[in-house]
Write a structure and sequence with these properties.
6 helices; 434 Repressor (Amino-terminal Domain); 46% helix; alpha+beta; EC 4.2.1.104; 2 strands; 155 residues; single chain; two-stranded antiparallel ribbon; Cyanate Lyase, Chain: A, domain 2; Cyanate hydratase; lyase
Length: 155
């Protein structure tokens, strides 16, 4: 039976334990996700408190991290999602806010022109990030947001 959190505190506390164990054991997000059948993005988001994990996956990652049965149970709870009430000052997170501030209306206009009136789901959604070489030198991040379009329905 799924259980739900009504506070961010339990998952925030667990996230701290996850990060400490990950660092102490010199693990990677990819290594933690390996063999779970879930994407590294989903497992990372779950371990950072944003998604529940299926029981079998919670058991695998908890074992890799050396976490107890209580952590296995908590990893399966449906979290209170979202991290902050306002815009984060962390430079990496803020850049994503900045991208939406600059390109949000453009994305909205193009989505509506191509699909009609509706939204792109963050529930039926996939996220991927890849590092690629920049032809001008250095590296680039290719971030793919893949969400199902959900049209508004008149009633």
């Amino acid at each position: 039976m799924p259980h739900s959190n009504i506070s961010r505190a339990p998952r925030q506390h667990l996230t701290e334990r996850v990060l400490q164990a990950k660092t102490a054991k010199n693990l990677t997000w990819a290594g933690l996700a390996e063999g779970t059948g879930l994407s590294v993005v989903y497992v990372t988001a779950a371990l950072l408190g944003q998604h529940p994990l299926p029981e079998a996956v919670a058991e695998v990652v908890a074992e890799r991290l050396g976490l107890d049965r209580g952590a296995v149970a908590e990893l399966q709870t449906i979290p209170l999602r979202g991290n902050v009430e306002d815009v984060s000052s962390d430079p990496t997170i803020y850049r994503f806010h900045e991208m939406v501030q600059v390109y949000g209306t453009t994305l909205k206009a193009l989505v509506h022109e191509q699909f009609g009136d509706g939204i792109i789901s963050a529930i039926n959604f996939k996220l991927d990030i890849k590092k690629v070489d920049d032809p001008e030198g250095g590296e680039r991040a290719v971030i793919t947001l893949d969400g199902k379009f959900l049209p508004y329905k008149p009633f």
